[in-house]
Amino acid sequence: MKKFSFLIGLVLISTMTLAPNAFSAREKFGADKRHDEVKKELRTIKPSTAEFKWKMVMPWSKGLLFYDLAQHFADSVALASGGRLEIKLFSAGELVGAMESFDAVSKGQAEIGHDWPGYWKGKNEAFVAFASVPFGLDAEGYNIWLYERGGLEMMQELYGRYNLFALPGGNVGQELGLFSNKKATKMKDFQGMRLRTPGWYMDIMTNLGASVTPLPGGEVYLALERGVIDAAEFSTPAINYPMGFDEITKYVIEPGVHQPSCQSAFFINKDAYAKLPADLKWIIDIAAKETQLWSTAWQENLNAQAVKLFKEKVEFIRMDEETLNSFAKASHEYIEGLKAKYPDVKKVMDSQDQFKADFADWRQERSGVAPWPYDMYVKGKHLQ
Questions:
Q1: Is residue 195 classed as helix, strand or coil in its secondary structure?
Q2: Where are the domains of the chain?
Q3: Beta strand 194-196 pairing with 178-180
Q4: Across the chain, what does the average pLDDT equal?
């Protein structure tokens, strides 16, 4: 019997290791496109000994968790390069002003920067699409679109017009909705509301009758406390928590339809990048991908903790289905208008919309197994 079982085991192992086309007429489904590129690189690439010291500028203060994303990347580059590429961080105002970082790197005053691409809306509306789109891509969607659907190439082409080479620089997940002293769940509740939000959502809410201002993060608390504004959103739960909005508001209006996820980027002066040997360019590329992966896991774990703390002081309320649909319709109409006006926005948003359409079948078929706790699942809570 033992001999028979052993033979059965060998048969099972051998069948599992046979090529897929031993059982099917189809060839292998998918391949790592980078593999051939790496094989070519390895024929010529040689480890370098040159050392580089770079300056990184950003819109962030050291107190914001976005700063930690930039530091994580710099640390990964230093470790992987054995210290041959050292990146020193300068927070907002230390070397240049927060909103001057883009131009500073473009002109070569600093070699690299970190951002939320939507800050450069004034240079080109399409930058917003690489940051956060109302009812747009979540963190998973951005990863797929950027790395597998041509999004990264579009990002690099857009930044490239300004003498910059760009890479994804971390995604911290969905943002919270509005911290508010008004209990708004229906569309009519938002009319006349004074609120803080930037980007495309600022224009959308203005069109819907709200009074909107894109206040800097450091001014939001006082504006809420003094009643200058009724409501505000800033970022994810973990990034919001140190800002203390729950101390001066009563509600959080969910969900955060304005930013289903918050995507950052690293942007590098092209002349500085060109001076790097090939092995350091690969290290930058891989360190950026590692930061993109780590950032979501790190932040979402913190987000879960922060929400529990928020719920000790504020009430979480949700917009009803009719209101969500109305916001979605208004957002769609606004973005369609941008697409008609700006070819760059059309190119990028058509690509994102096509990805969402192509992914819809799989999203539908895989639904129903969201990882809720057991007691919640068996009571009927199946969808995300």
A1: strand
A2: 49-171+261-301, 175-258+312-341
A3: unpaired
A4: 93
Determine which of 16-20, 71-75, 251-255, 312-316 has the lowest per-residue pLDDT on average: 16-20
Q: Do domains 49-171+261-301 and 175-258+312-341 have the same CATH topology?
A: yes
Coil/strand/helix, residue 136: coil
Summarised one tens digit per residue, pLDDT across range 185-241 is: 999 999 999 999 988 999 999 999 999 988 888 899 999 999 999 999 999 999 999
Closest to 51 (Cα-Cα) out of 75, 80, 83: 83
Q: What is the dihedral of CA 74, 78, 83, 89, to 10 degrees?
A: 10
Rounded to an integer, what distance in angstroms lies between the CA atom of residue 248 and that of residue 268? 40
Q: How far, in Å, CA of 376 to CA of 217, rounded? A: 36
- Surface-to-core class of residue 352, CB atoms within 10 Å of its CB (0-12 exposed, 13-18 middle, 19+ buried): buried
CATH for 175-258+312-341 is: 3.40.190.10
Write down the residue that tokens 């500073």 correspond to: 104
Class of domain 49-171+261-301: alpha beta
Q: How far apart are CA 181 and CA 88, in angstroms?
A: 41
Q: Left if phi > 0, otherwise alpha if psi is -120 to 50, otherwise beta: which for 368? A: left
Asked if pLDDT for residue 21 goes beyond 90, the answer is no
Identify the pLDDT of residue 358.
Answer: 98
Cβ(69)–Cβ(169) under 8 Å?
A: yes
Q: Given strand 112-115, what is the order of strands in its sheet?
A: 85-90, 52-57, 112-115, 263-269, 164-171
Residue written as token pair 């600022």: 202
Residue with token string 């930061």: 291
pLDDT tops 90 at residue 14: no
pTM of the complete model: 0.92
Local structure of 161: helix, strand or coil: coil
Polymer length of the chain: 384
Cβ atoms within 10 Å of 317's Cβ, excluding its own: 17
